[in-house]
Specification:
The complex is a heterotrimer of chains A (268), B (262) and C (315).
Chain A: E1 8-15, E2 25-32, E3 37-41, H1 48-55, E4 63-68, E5 71-72, H2 78-84, E6 85-88, H3 100-105, H4 120-132, H5 148-161, E7 166-170, H6 178-195, E8 198-202, H7 206-212, E9 215-220, E10 223-228, H8 230-233, H9 236-243, E11 247-252, E12 255-260
Parallel strand pairs in A: 3-8, 3-9, 6-7, 7-8
Antiparallel strand pairs in A: 1-2, 1-4, 4-5, 9-10, 11-12
Helix pairs in contact in A: 4-5
Chain B: E1 16-19, H1 23-30, E2 37-39, H2 64-69, E3 74-78, H3 81-92, E4 97-100, H4 105-119, H5 122-137, E5 145-153, E6 156-159, H6 164-172, E7 174-176, E8 185-187, H7 190-196, E9 200-204, H8 223-226, E10 230-233, H9 235-238, H10 245-261
Parallel strand pairs in B: 1-2, 1-3, 3-4, 5-7, 5-9, 9-10
Antiparallel strand pairs in B: 5-6, 6-8
Helix pairs in contact in B: 1-4, 4-5, 6-10
Chain C: H1 2-20, H2 35-65, H3 78-91, H4 99-119, E1 120-121, E2 125-126, H5 128-152, H6 156-165, H7 174-183, H8 185-193, H9 195-201, H10 205-210, H11 215-237, H12 243-255, H13 259-283, H14 292-314
Antiparallel strand pairs in C: 1-2
The chains are: A alpha/beta (268), B alpha/beta (262), C mainly alpha (315).
């Protein structure tokens, strides 16, 4: 067991939204250390995004603790937290037209002083971030001219420009096609292996998570259905129970892959 | 019968409603038709006797029902866009209505004569008309003093030649520095007033205290303000064009002569 | 750099023309010694600069806050509150040369507080869309009360109060300039400090939070500071529309969206625009004077139409 302080540590948290009838999260735990790629899976409404919000101190849990780098998540100032954790949220609605470099530069905010101007070190960080995301060629493009895949890479670059230790991605491949999905997962793997980054990714893509992630947390109804390596988590019984659909589990490249089975309805 | 024109068929009226904010109220009283007035605007307060007449609303947007309820033989309205509509509505109810212009003194002379005729006080009406005509026909005296009327300060508003006030000033020996403006009133810059340099500022006010703006720094760029040369014009004589015009001119002349001696 | 020089030159030109031109003819050689220039034109020009600048900055900030490029400082109900305050002051015969501006200011602040309270949803969070709606509602409501008071009142004074609300710099004096000059630096500094977080807010509240912005306090600060600037502008010069709406857009065309450049540019641009508009208001129909709010609308509306076309084309 590693003695390095986990970057993110959620211990037995329970959370209920105001006026809700049930818990959004119950007794969920998660630890992420540098160099680890964690995926959070589960059906809609299983509490994946809620877990992120509690882990980052945006919501206070009714029970349990949430810590970032050994300190209570809620005790961090937003700015200090942004130097450790870079988040690519599910949705972004950029109001004003910008060029790619400008939007990635926004990621340097946590490192800038209140009155000081942007420094060469900031511009270098932007360039490096764009390089790592294979987006340097897009640097001078206007963001509205980008394709979905390109825009996602730019958002990732912005998060990397924060120079975080932990990257949190909320459904980053939601509207991407096969090629861009694969490119993104490969890119994340490279960032983890090459840069020592820790990554927490919420995704619907069970099979890609199984192939790329080191550890998987499978949530159902706010509770932990299974947690561990992809192979240990993705058993047929578990997957069928959680997703309420018959599946077959095949092995590909040493990783379990989920294949949903057909269930034709009887003619009425 | 045409709306807006004095009805020629109407020989005499027993009941009239005056719905103008201005002279008609006291015009009707001045010609002796006070007993025949059965309705007035809330703003008609002169003469004091008018207060005993029931009010039927303010003169800006006439309350047609309240007017009709008084069963008038004639309704007198101030000439304006809004009142044209009211006049038509009253005509549809079969009530004779007339609208009067009341911006300048000659309008009062005309109104006095016509109202006198229809209310059965022809002699009184003609006499008032004649007095005002005489006033207007007198050659104006040589201007004694340069004046301006300031009716509002923010934005600064002055009186031009379209207003009866300009006429009163001219007849009293005052030269309105804004006589070249055709409108009854207009907004100007303070610096224009400074440049035209009136000797005296005329203020419509019943109090003797100088107006509030005279303490403000930017207004004190005007010489007359710095020197405190204000003439206060009480509302009963100067508030609107009325049969008291000759008395108003005389009072103003008196004040201007006093200023000229300073 | 060239852009700033150009803007500076524009402001200088605006100031010079405001001082040299006017309905009263003052020869160039007499300018420094003329009483008209010293006690009327110079303070008026400075006030135009300060008011126009305040409106430009308030407009840019509010557009970022409510994430709507069509926002104008007067959309938040402040003008309605100011008008109501002014009318009440006149109706109650409150005395003193500062009565009207103070009453308008108080009315504007009251409206601001009410709109803020209405804009709070779920306890402590300010929802910009609700803010806009609340602003329109409060503005309409106070406008209705004001109209009711004025139509029931007998004095012509109250109707003239509406003329004041139309907007004008005729109340300018060294005293007014001093008050504005002392008052506006604080809200301006608060907004400038919020410039970078406002850039983040353009991405959305959630992304802004994750990038390190404290979104709730930010929204509060920006709303209050922008409203304070607008309230002061209304108090000294009535409602001058379009400046707060148009100037941010024009400056965005040249300086882009980064608020650290945009806000100062909007201040200078707003000042220059109002200076030119006021000069036109004083000179174009001399000896009469147009309400400056009319001039800004006459200039602003076609300009805005042109901008809309460019914006629409951008998609």
């Amino acid at each position: 067991m590693s003695t390095v302080t986990p970057l993110l540590s959620v211990q037995r948290v329970t959370y209920r939204y105001p006026d809700a009838s049930g818990d959004a999260l119950r007794d969920v735990s998660l630890e992420i250390r540098p160099g680890e790629f964690h995926a959070v899976l589960g059906p809609n409404g299983s509490g994946k995004t809620t877990l992120i919000r509690v882990a980052l101190g945006l919501e206070a849990p009714a029970a349990g603790t949430a810590e970032i780098a050994g300190r209570a998540a809620a005790a961090w100032s937003r700015r200090d937290l942004a130097r450790i954790v870079g988040v690519v949220a599910q949705r972004e609605d950029n109001l004003f037209p910008q060029q790619v470099r400008e939007t990635v530069l926004l990621g340097r905010y946590p490192h800038l002083s209140l009155w000081g101007a942007e420094r060469p070190v900031d511009r270098d960080a932007v360039t490096r971030a764009l390089e790592r995301c294979d987006a340097l060629g897009l640097a001078d493009r206007w963001i509205w001219t980008l394709s979905g895949g390109e825009y996602q890479r730019v958002r990732l670059a912005r998060a990397l420009a924060q120079e975080p230790s932990l990257l949190v991605l909320d459904e980053p491949t939601a509207s991407l096609d096969v090629r861009h999905e694969m490119e993104l997962f490969e890119l994340v793997r490279v960032l983890v292996d090459g840069g020592g980054l820790a990554v927490l990714m919420i995704t619907h893509h069970v099979n890609l998570a199984a192939r790329f992630a080191d550890r998987v947390l499978l949530l159902a109804g706010g509770q932990t259905a299974a947690q561990g390596t992809p192979r240990s988590v993705l058993s047929r019984e578990t997957v069928e129970r959680v997703f309420a659909w018959p599946v077959a589990i095949e092995s590909f490249d040493g990783h379990p892959q989920m294949i949903p089975l057909r269930q034709p309805k009887e003619p009425a | 019968m045409e709306i807006g024109r004095f009805p020629t068929v109407l020989e005499s009226i027993d009941a009239a409603v005056s719905v103008t904010a201005f002279a008609t109220g006291d015009l009707l009283f001045a010609i002796g038709a006070g007993d025949q007035v059965v309705g007035r605007t809330t703003w008609c307060r002169y003469p004091a006797a008018a207060l005993r007449v029931p009010a039927v609303g303010d003169g800006l947007s006439p309350n047609v029902e309240a007017i009709a309820a008084r069963h008038p033989d004639l309704v007198v309205l101030y000439r304006s866009q809004m009142n044209e509509t009211a006049a038509e509505q009253l005509a549809r109810l079969g009530i004779p209505t007339v609208t009067l212009a009341q911006d300048r003194l000659e309008d009062i002379a005309e109104a006095a004569r016509e109202l006198g005729r229809v209310s059965g006080h022809k002699a009184a009406g003609d006499s008032i008309g004649a007095a005002i005509d005489a006033l207007l026909q007198r050659p104006p005296p040589a201007p004694l003093v340069r004046v301006t009327f300031v009716v509002w300060d923010n934005p600064p508003m002055v009186i031009g030649s379209g207003s009866y006030l300009d006429q009163l000033a001219t007849l009293a020996g005052g030269s309105n520095v804004f006589h070249d403006l055709a409108a009854a009133s207009a907004t100007v810059s303070i610096e224009t007033i400074v440049a035209r340099n009136p000797d005296v500022i005329l203020v419509l006010s019943d109090s003797t205290a100088p107006p509030a703006y005279s303490a403000r720094r930017e207004w004190r760029a005007i010489r007359a303000v710095r020197e405190g040369r204000f003439i206060m014009l009480p509302a009963d004589l100067f508030g609107r064009p009325s049969p008291t015009a000759p008395a108003a001119v005389a009072a103003l002349r008196h004040s201007l002569e006093a200023e000229a001696r300073k | 750099m060239k852009r700033w020089l150009g803007l500076g030159a524009l402001v200088a030109l605006a100031l010079v023309s405001a001082v040299a031109l006017g309905p009263a003819h003052v020869a160039l050689s007499d300018l420094p010694s003329s009483a008209i220039v010293r006690s009327l034109r110079v303070p008026r020009a400075l006030l135009a600069l300060l008011v126009g600048g305040s409106l430009g900055v308030a407009g840019a900030s509010l557009q970022a806050l409510v994430r709507n490029p069509l926002a104008d400082p007067f959309l938040l109900g402040l003008s309605g509150g100011a008008g109501l305050g002014a009318v009440l002051a006149i109706a109650l015969h409150v005395a003193g040369p500062w009565a009207l501006p103070l009453a308008a200011f108080t009315g504007a602040l009251g409206a601001m507080a009410l709109v803020y309270r209405l804009g709070l949803v779920g306890g402590a969070q300010l929802d910009p869309r609700v803010l806009l709606l609340a602003g329109v509602a409060v503005g309409a409501f106070s406008g209705a009360i004001t109209t009711a008071i004025v139509s029931l009142a007998e004095a012509a004074d109250l109707r003239n109060a509406f003329l004041w609300l139309w907007g004008g710099l005729s109340g300018a004096s060294w005293d007014t300039v001093l008050v504005m000059a002392v008052y506006i630096p604080v809200p301006l500094v608060v907004l400038y400090a919020a410039a970078r977080p406002l850039d983040l807010l353009a991405l959305g509240e959630e992304p802004a939070t994750h990038l390190g912005a404290d979104v709730e306090p930010l929204k509060r600060r920006v709303y209050i500071a922008a409203s304070m600037l607008t309230a002061a502008a209304v108090a000294v010069s009535g409602v001058i529309g379009f400046v707060g709406l148009i100037v941010p857009h024009i400056t965005r065309l040249v300086w882009g969206h980064r608020h650290r450049a945009l806000l100062p540019a909007a201040f200078l641009g707003g000042g220059a625009l109002l200076l030119f508009a006021d000069t036109a208001a004083r000179v174009s129909v001399a000896p009469r004077e147009l309400p400056v709010g009319i001039v800004t609308a006459l200039v602003g509306v076609p300009l805005f139409a042109v901008l809309l076309r460019r914006w629409g084309a951008r998609g």
